Amino acid sequence: MKNLLMLALMTLVWGCSDNPSGGDVGLQPDKNPLVDTGGPTPDKGPPSEQGPTTDKGPAGDKGNLTCDPSFGQAQACGGAVVGKWKYTAGCVADAAFDDLKTDCPGVQISGVAYNVGTNNTVTFVAGGSFTRVFTGSIVGKAAFGQACTKLGCTALQAAVKLAVAVKYPGSTIQCTANTASGCDCDVDLKVSTFAAGTYTTSSGVLTAKVVSVDHPYYYCIQGTRLVYHGTPQNTNDHNVTYVLELVP
Predict the structure, then answer these.
(1) CB 231 within 8 A of CB 75
(2) Cα separations (Å) of 6 from 31, 152, 204?
(3) Which of 9-13, 42-46, 143-147, 184-188 has the lowest mean pLDDT?
(4) pLDDT band for position 201 (50/70/90)?
(5) For residue 129, which phi and psi values (nearest 5 degrees)?
(6) CA 166 vs CA 94, 160, 191, 194: distances in Å
(7) Distance of CA 71 to the CA centre of its chain
(8) Distances (CA, A) of 199 to 15, 18, 39, 64, 126
């Protein structure tokens, strides 16, 4: 269970699994997911805009790109990425934790969200290089039934915490008994990342390369908003959608 939990939680974050040694995978947030609260993405607009605080437009609409966890090839309009971009939101479907069900088929996953910290940016240089700085957390709830909690909730909590401690230091796991004699666990993975590498763009796909490893993302720029999401080939980060705003 320990190894599975670690792999499942690691899968959620490409953009969140970067590290100073270059082990991250591109734009990420790798290991540093990302700050989505599960609600609509705040609309930060250009500095001169005092528009609505909530962005409700469909993905792809100019100036109204929501954080859609299903963002994919159909929405990948491409665009010129050169510049400095600030992360405003991230979102992910509950299915990102489905790997937990391999060892415990009855586990119920809910409330998975990508929380983005402040001053998180990625900068794309015209010459084809990029740098990324990110801090945040991935939160979610996992309800384990009796079949998976025979040793009790305290033991389960310790196992999950041990599984994520190396990759996500400072993370918190809190498991409590529920009325069905199982355990309800709140997971809060702390992530931080610094990554640098090179990138290329083609037909709505941005490929970030870190330590000779390619990490492809579908992306779309409309106005001052950038949205990107890992392609199915991006095994480290194919669950999260990121929303960024161009820094003036």
Answers:
(1) no
(2) 12, 19, 32
(3) 9-13
(4) very high
(5) -115, 160
(6) 23, 11, 11, 17
(7) 13
(8) 14, 16, 31, 26, 10
Q: Tally the residues of the chain.
A: 248
Structure tokens that stand for 59 in this block: 């993905």
- Distance between CA 82 and CA 241 in Å, rounded? 20
Across residues 59-67, what is the average pLDDT? Answer: 47
For 42, which DSSP code? B
Q: Return the structure tokens found at 242.
A: 């990121």
Asked if 138 contacts 69 with a C-beta cutoff of 8 angstroms, the reply is no
Global pTM value: 0.69
Distance set, CA 66 to CA 4, 88, 141, 185, 233 (Å): 32, 11, 23, 29, 24
Note the pLDDT tens digit of each residue in 71-100: 999 999 999 999 999 999 999 888 777 766
